[in-house]
Design brief:
heterodimer; A: 688 residues; mainly beta; Maltoporin, Chain A; 22-stranded antiparallel β-barrel; B: 189 residues; alpha/beta; Rossmann fold; 8-stranded mixed β-sheet; two-stranded antiparallel sheet; 6 helices; globular
Chain lengths: 688, 189
């Protein structure tokens, strides 16, 4: 086994260089090709004002509204965080925005780290959730989770965030097991002119964005921006300096162009660099055996370039081609990783006859990583390139046009770890009237292994052993790690109860098998690093199973014209068990007691006279009994004054109810959690 | 690995070729973006409606076409109709945000994004000589004058004649004739 891995390192090492150059070349060529299309394709745009009205009424149009209609009759649990939701919220980053979605569990670990999941299995590297920014995945193929501290999309650039709870596997692919979060940024034409924002707050917090947007001719628009912020540290659970200060700097651009009446092209990119402190619990020395929590500085940086070409073939047929390249690196001395990702995605949306609406497509992704071998974390092999091929098809059938729609879809994927996987889904929606609809769905989805499941080694802790021989507790990945599988049944109801009240409710039942477990292995002697010690290994395996079920409700109530309330509630219960062959005694309880059973929220927005508005949001999160984290209620509020269209001031307070509270103390993460402090900030925004 | 790279490039090539050579028809028969079309409609509305002589916005030689709320036209109005002549006036575009004064507009397009605020906005403009155009489901019932709708893939419109007439606006019979539906009173739907 060792020999094979060494060969992989050599051949992968050589290939890695070629791939890297190829991928960058490929993306740059594609980008240039698109740019030339945009410049060249200033196709003649006939002047419609010279056509008389009767003739205009005979020309067909292509509509974005159809996609919106589709969203409201979507047979899935969808919640869209709109620009108004973002403006009214006191949140200054995406994780805090996600708290408003029932069913999403957001637990802040320290000043820069969050454990975010949907429908259970929360953790710092929550792996059953796919997160995308404009179609580019930010889910790490290395550690099967999202590094939220490096995802700094300025809130002013966000058009909406679509959160789909439940498997989105058919269209979005593997790892969208419990949900998909898709952050969609504004088109360049929506961010024209200049914008400057500057904010300062307690905990030595400061940040701002400078952005400018303009046009190239009549058919293309661009924006460029730079932003940065810094947060000082929170206290740890004992009240000392948590060493978790966080700062990040980012710059980016976006260009949207209508190359012709049928073609629209988008090119966007950004680069970021930042660091976040943390207290890492690690082995300080093997002999004498000492563990400790030491401060480290996690440095991260990266850049990405994405291009997308939408082509309208006819009112019933539209294609989309997307290519992106993403490079990210991070490390704090106890670990170091770098990943290059190149992804091509193609989709065709085509109607067939009166009753069928197909979406089909294919994609290819290649991820090449380079990892550092440190005393704490290492990967074997240290370098690996993994590819994934996928194709999918989905048909929405109008069983009863405008009333009942049946959606059948399947995605076929092939990855280097587990080979082929099939993810089918069937959904039905029934529009009872123009005020309410019912939907139901059954699907199967899989979470494919990441490098950490298959190839990692983490030296966790050291213990004094008999005869003075230290015992090193280590966790090992398992190259034979299988896909985790979920079968889901969901149903939901959406209604406009009255002109002022709307309601959206979902119930779900999830059945899991081949969930990750940690199994003890045979101890063995090891001489490196010296001195001689015994390794007590535990291996990842797939020997847990279980089921979860729950309910999510969100509502909107326009109490009076100037005041609206948005309550929400979610309930989750988890029953996880080890398989007969498993010797893992802790994972099941850790999962069951690591997500809150009840969560509730209430958001309020009031338009006051004199161009003031006042917003408040309260969130209740139930306790995490396996971690000893009590339940807590979070209250945020902000007051905004917008005296002119181009100028606004905001005063906000977050976590107002208690001076500090704890949200997460998971055994899964090796960083020490901090207490989340009460804070306040002031922000000015000026458009010119 | 070579084979896989080949596979990758074939995917890209196939997709790019398929993309570029789809069954395309000559421009005249192919499709138009929905809001580019609606921009042209607004231009025609402006030509087929008469404002009373004492309209406050009548001073000067501009005809103001305003949009209120999140703008679905995204620059189409500036591209398609800004600067064109309507009678003796030049068409100018303004984007307004409530509670800015909308009475200086001749034509006011109220975005669907305004949602629950629309009835209040329209009530504020009742009997004011502003041609209100919108897309919200109950736009006419709330007092709006013209509502866009889509029939199949073609743009259509409905007119609330009473709202227009009580504001002193005279809608040409040609426009009334082309409307999908003309509603006489405030009952709407």
């Amino acid at each position: 086994m060792f020999e094979r891995q060494e060969r992989d390192i050599r051949s992968d090492g050589a290939v890695r260089l070629v791939f890297g150059r190829y991928a960058i070349l490929g993306s740059v060529l594609f980008f240039l090709f698109l740019a030339s299309q945009a410049a060249h394709g200033q196709a003649t745009q006939p002047d419609l004002t010279k056509v008389n009205l009767e003739d205009l009424m005979n020309i067909e149009v292509t509509s974005v509204a159809k996609k919106e209609q589709r969203l409201s009759r979507t047979a899935a649990a969808v919640f869209v965080i709109t620009q108004n939701d973002i403006r009214h919220s006191s949140a200054t980053n995406i994780p805090d925005l996600l708290r408003m979605v029932p069913g999403v569990d957001v637990a802040q670990i320290n000043a820069s780290k969050w454990a975010i999941s949907i429908r259970g299995f929360n953790g710092q590297y929550s792996n059953k959730l796919l997160v995308l920014i404009d179609g580019r995945t930010v889910y790490s193929p290395l550690l099967s989770g999202v590094f939220w501290d490096a995802q700094d999309v300025p809130l002013e650039n966000i058009d909406r965030i679509e959160v789909i709870r439940g498997p989105g596997a058919t269209v979005w692919g593997a790892n969208a097991v419990n949900g998909v979060i898709n952050v969609i940024t504004k088109k360049a034409s929506d961010t024209q002119g200049g914008l400057l924002t500057e904010g300062v707050g307690t905990s030595d917090r400061a940040g701002g964005i400078a952005r400018y947007g303009g046009k190239f001719g009549r058919n293309a628009a661009y924006r460029v921006f730079a932003d940065g912020f810094a947060y000082n540290h929170f206290p740890d659970v004992a009240g000392r300096n948590g060493n978790d200060g966080w700062n990040i700097v980012q710059g980016g651009f976006r260009v949207d162009a209508n190359a012709s009446a049928q073609d629209s092209i988008t090119v966007e990119g950004d680069a970021h660099s930042g660091n976040a402190g943390e207290m890492v619990s690690s082995v300080v020395s093997i002999f004498p055996p000492v563990n400790g929590a030491l401060p480290f500085n996690d440095r991260f940086s990266g850049w990405n370039l994405l291009s997308r070409w939408n082509h309208v073939v006819s009112p019933h047929s539209e294609t989309s081609l997307q290519v992106y390249f993403d490079r990210s690196t991070r490390g704090d001395g106890t670990y170091g990783i770098g990943v290059n990702t190149f992804d091509v995605d193609f989709q065709h949306h085509v109607g067939w006859g009166e009753r069928h609406d197909f979406v089909w497509g294919g994609g290819y992704r290649v991820s090449s990583d380079q990892t550092e071998t440190t005393p704490r974390v290492s990967f074997n092999p240290a370098f690996r390139t993994a590819q994934m091929f996928s194709c999918f098809v989905q048909d929405e059938i109008a069983v009863l046009p405008d009333r009942v729609y049946l959606s059948l879809g399947v995605k076929l994927e092939h990855n280097d770890y587990t080979g082929f996987g099939l993810q089918p889904s069937a959904r039905i929606s029934w529009t009872l009237s123009n005020r309410n609809m019912l939907w139901a769905a059954v699907s199967q989805a899989e979470r494919t292994p990441a490098r950490s499941d298959a190839n990692i080694r983490v030296n966790y802790a050291v213990l004094p052993g008999p005869n003075g021989l230290p015992l090193l507790i280590s966790i090992f990945g398992n190259p034979g790690f299988k896909n985790e599988v979920v079968r889901t049944a969901e149903a939901g109801y959406r209604t406009q109860l009255t002109d002022r009240v709307s309601l959206d409710a979902t119930v779900f039942f999830n059945n899991y098998r081949d969930l990750v477990s940690l199994e003890p292995g045979t101890p063995f002697l090891e001489t490196r690093p010296p001195p001689l010690h015994v390794v007590i290994p535990r291996f990842f395996s797939n020997l847990e199973h279980g089921e979860t079920h729950g309910l999510e409700v969100s509502a909107n109530w326009r109490v009076v014209n100037r005041w609206s309330l948005s309550p929400g509630y979610s309930f989750l219960t988890m029953h996880i068990h080890r398989d007969a062959l498993s010797q893992d005694l802790t994972t099941a309880a850790g999962a069951e007691g690591g997500s809150p059973q009840h969560q509730a929220q209430l958001r309020s927005h009031v338009d006051l006279p004199g161009k003031w508005s006042w917003n408040m949001s309260a969130y209740f999160v139930g306790r995490l009994w396996a971690q000893g984290v009590p339940s807590y209620t979070r209250l945020d509020t902000n007051l905004t004054w917008q005296p002119a269209e181009r100028f606004s001031i905001t005063l906000a307070g977050e976590n107002l109810l208690k001076d500090h509270h704890l949200e997460y103390m998971g055994p899964d993460s090796t960083i020490l959690p901090s207490m989340i402090k009460r804070s306040a900030y002031a922000k000015i925004a000026w458009q010119f | 690995m070579r084979a896989h790279l080949l596979a990758l490039w074939s995917v890209v090539l196939f997709a790019a070729v398929f993309h570029a050579t789809g069954p395309e028809t000559a421009w005249a028969q192919s499709t138009v973006d929905e809001y580019r079309m609606k921009a042209a409609f607004l231009f025609h509305f402006a030509q087929l409606v008469e404002w009373p002589a004492d309209t406050p916005a009548n001073g000067g030689n501009s005809l103001f076409l305003c949009t209120l709320g999140e703008d679905p036209f995204r620059g189409e109005l500036e591209n398609t109709v800004e600067g064109k002549q309507v009678g003796s006036r030049t068409l100018r575009i303004r984007h307004v945000k409530p509670p800015q004064d909308t009475r200086g507009c001749h034509v006011l397009f109220i975005s669907k994004s305004e949602g629950k605020r629309i009835p209040a906005l329209l009530a504020n403009l009742r009997n004011a000589p502003v041609l209100t155009v919108g897309e919200a489901d109950d736009f006419l019932g709330a007092g709006g004058m013209i509502r866009f709708c889509l029939e199949g893939n073609k743009v259509r419109f409905e007119i609330n004649r009473e709202a227009a007439e009580s504001a002193g606006l005279r809608i040409s019979s040609q426009l009334l004739h082309l409307a999908k539906k003309v509603v006489g009173g405030n009952g709407g739907k």
